[in-house]
Amino acid sequence: MKLPDGVRITADLDSDPELAALAEQVLTPEALDLLAALHREFNPRRLELLAARDVRSRALEAGGTLDFLPETASVRGDTSWRVAEPGPGLADRRVEITGPTDQKMTINALNSGAKVWLADLEDANTPLFDNMLSGQLNLRRAITGDIDFESGGKQYVLGDDIATIVVRPRGWHLPEKHVEVDGEPMSGSLFDFALYLLHCGRLQIDAGRGPYYYLPKMESHLEARLWNDVFVAAQQAVGIDRGTIRATCLIETYPAAFEMEEILYELREHSSGLNAGRWDYLFSVIKKFRGAGRDFLLPDRNAVTMTAPFMRAYTELLVSTCHKRGAHAIGGMAAAIPNRRDAEANDAAMGKVRNDKTREAGDGFDGSWVAHPDLVPICREVFDAVLGERPNQIERTRDDVHVTAAQLLDVRSTPGEITEAGLRGNVSVGLQYLQAWLRGSGAVAIFGLMEDAATAEISRSQVWQWQSLGVELSSGQVVTKDLVNTVIDEELAKIAQTVGDEAFAHGGWDAATDLYREMATSEDFADFLTLPAYERMP
Predict the structure, then answer these.
(1) Which of 113, 271, 372, 411 is buried most, with the most CB atoms less than 10 Å from its CB?
(2) What is the per-residue pLDDT across 311-347, written as a single tens digit (0 to 9) for each?
(3) What distance in Å separates the CA atoms of residue 199 and residue 325, rounded to the nearest whole number?
């Protein structure tokens, strides 16, 4: 492979012919030139913005708080601006399905009947180099119609009416360690974004759609400004008209909730809306206010519903902000997996999904997420009942909503207990997810739910928070490091019994357990579980 000056591939392609062949197809000379150019122009700003996150975190640990920014009051007060019109294929988003970009999921998601597929290169994926390259290739083949898959004698092929693809690249904090430019690891965000734009942008335009993205884990409008500048530069580099890209931003960090309007403003020529990301949002609450004591103490994660006062404020603000500016508001994830063995349990789970989607549609959301194709009809039925023939309800501006900073910060009013079952659930889910993640699977079925990296983050964060505060469980036990380690050992033993001795012995459970134990019981809180996990990956 011929590499541009200053570019280095650190993966061992010589010993892996299949990976080398993938790299030849995806990391073309043109692609590597674009990656190098974007890295050199934008990586310094990315690193500065990550440093700014640390400064804000230290200020919060020192007793500071979050609020709407006085320096951007003019943006919020200016009623004249709106975001771009929806791109082709993005006006109607009443059902969106999410999942990784392996061949089977690519085909099933596109055939699911959903309006949009969030093709996930982030939380539902693991950043094995093979995954990152094959995912790009699968996306291109899906657009050209040259993709199929066979498993268990069943053939999977694309139908005629497929969903609009929206790609989620990795967040600004994540590197792509297998590609270096001038001695620095590339930004995972720029790597994922640029390869899709180069290989699929023109193909999508020719197909009557466009290169569309979901942007994760931003913490400020300045990070959105960086994305917009990247879009402008990249569109010029590949010969696509400025404003062709559309991006939906996930509001899944606590600081971003106070800058929703500014984030839309920075991306307004490329913006297509905001999304409410539940588990990462709760994880961010713990992370950002980890030194604030019991005012930000959360009960069992399954007890924190979207009707909790601070979560209600967050979603109401998101809808009203989006519709004020002509943008889509997309609701949160329904992660339930249909249970075909237990009709009663399945009916209960599907009832919860229906109730959740009914609340969202009634609140003004324009669509919502599901993780399994069988949930698409439920979500579609609920939104059909509200939208009818309209593609969305952006015209419903929710002028009745007036959310204050105090309401967004009112975690203390969240009802619910902290229980031993909640502690054990967090530990077991965290262990099982990490074991799968380290072995290459980012979307994992656990206890009837499709879990991703956000689940692992909230699971280990809650355990860390409860231990650091010495919380008393509803049973009377106090959460200490010793108790957490005991529960880890006991839950691991249950897993070993379930999977069997041989599978457990060769399943990489020691590495997963060591990492989870470190993240859940260390004195200092690690900002992201995926960073040390990625270091343990080849």
Answers:
(1) 271
(2) 999 999 999 999 999 999 999 999 999 998 899 999 9
(3) 31
